[in-house]
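Collaborator request log, item 7. Partner lab (contact: R.S.) asked for a structural prediction of NADH oxidase to inform their binding assays.
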Amino acid sequence: MLLGRPLRVGRHELRNRVVSPPMERNYGTTDGRVTDRYVAYLRARAAGGAALVFTEATYVRADGRGRVRQLGAHGDHVIAGLRVLAGAVHAEGALLGVELNHAGRVGDPAVCGFQPVAPSAVPFRGRPPRELETTEVGDLVDAFAAAARRCADAGVDVLEIHAAHGYLIHQFLSPRTNRRTDRYGDPALFLTEILQSVRRSAPHTTVFLRLSAFEGVPDGLDADATLAVTERLPLNLVDALDISAGCYEAGEWMVQPGEIQRGVLAPYAARFRRFGKPVGVAGRIVTGESAETILQSGAADLVAVGRAQHADPQWVATTLAGEHPRPCIGCNQGCIDSLHTQQPIWCVVNPRTGREHLAPAPPVPSRRVLVIGAGVAGLEAARSAALAGHVVSLWEAEPVIGGAFRLAAALAGKPEFGRLLDWYAAELVRLSVELRLSTRADATTVTRLAPDIVVPAVGGTGVRPPIPGIDHPRVHDLDDWLRHPRTSDRVTVWGADRVGLALADAAATAGCRTTLISAGSELAPEAGPREKGLTVRRLAGSPGVEIRLETTLEAIEEHHLLLGHAGRRQWTRIAGPVVVSQGVTPRHLDIGTGPWQVVPAGEWPQVTR
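Returned to partner:
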């Protein structure tokens, strides 16, 4: 496999072609220092086989910070921590990279304490930045140089200049955000000066340049324009080009959801081969097959595998061994949308991610463990119990594993979800977990097994608010509808949480005229913009979809619904079924009492492989 072959880039040889790319993590301190959590996270990806492990976008000046606990290279106080980080990564045989960045106009004054600065006063989310004076631009060049020196002093191997994703350097490159009339109106000048200053400050480091192949908005840089401005850069100062895409106004191109095809940016990266530099590419590279295909095609020399290594730090070693790592499902919940609320990142499919610094549960004598319910929570509990050396039985009332997660996996907008269930199925076999399907747990059956520990993981059932007509035959619970979909040319979905939204999207995609009713003012408020962005856009732009926000459903009749809006109630005619998505209430599990200990699935110790 090309994936496992070394590659010389600049002054360093990478042991394989897989990079753990810059990902914002929010694991640092509020003044930008490295923490034990940060070290443990990067060490785990280095130990898992990545050739080059990057920090997140690391701010070079205090007014360029975008997250509360973002890593910084803005002062000498960060050097000691970076040195520890470099030592930890080097001890696992990998190289450490730091991505140097300034947020520019996308910075938040509530986070950094400064008014954002930018090449021009183009507002972002209603906040106008301050346009930089000409002399101030030179000060920022110096800030990049000083940050590069600090990183070099700390033993960092690779510096990446972040000129993508709509941050400050990208703002200078784009005519959408650079309207200057002084010499920095030249889109290439600011980046040129940064490359020159970084090379002078850190002459012995390898330099990567990260670019968005296109911005993804109508008035931004397209692929041709990006290539044209790249041609004007002093690429003799660059050792490798790292190709991504998008900007904050087109976030789906920065971190693509699971419904986007794998390796989507490879054709764009291939166009940068003309510059004669090693090329890396990101963008939905989640399997060894997709990574190898990109390399074999010649589109790139390196693959940036971010979210997949976030889900499984052993992704590289497992893939190179010809096995299947724990899969990333492209949900974008914990790894990116958590940042929008300034939370540290986590992972939906791996409870250990972000907790690598915590000691695993101490070993205990082997016990007989019964896990009841083979949804994702039960599957993870059974796996971790088996890894800890327990004798494990997993009972599931349905004839298949997966629970409600399997229902979600059947939706067109969740094409990667099924891979997680396939992986768990293989893990149960590998770890000799006894799986009993179509088996209901009650006091008699549990007593017969005589477990030492019972882990209930039975999920919940849909809520049906007590309104007139709620028991009409045309009304269906969401789970029931997904298990037994009906043929209909029209459907009303009552409830616009993330699952109601996904169901409405699936119905509309199938050509069904869809009405979505929500008492709230926002679709799926519990879901972040990267998780729901494409879905909301599709629904809002579909002529076959009617969205009624701030609207209550108060009664159901044979052909009419009583809706409330703005203090008024009105009957409206409907055709087709009504599917209810109004939350979940926990199921009650009656297994009686016995000598066994009951441990909820959420409290079961999570054990690393």
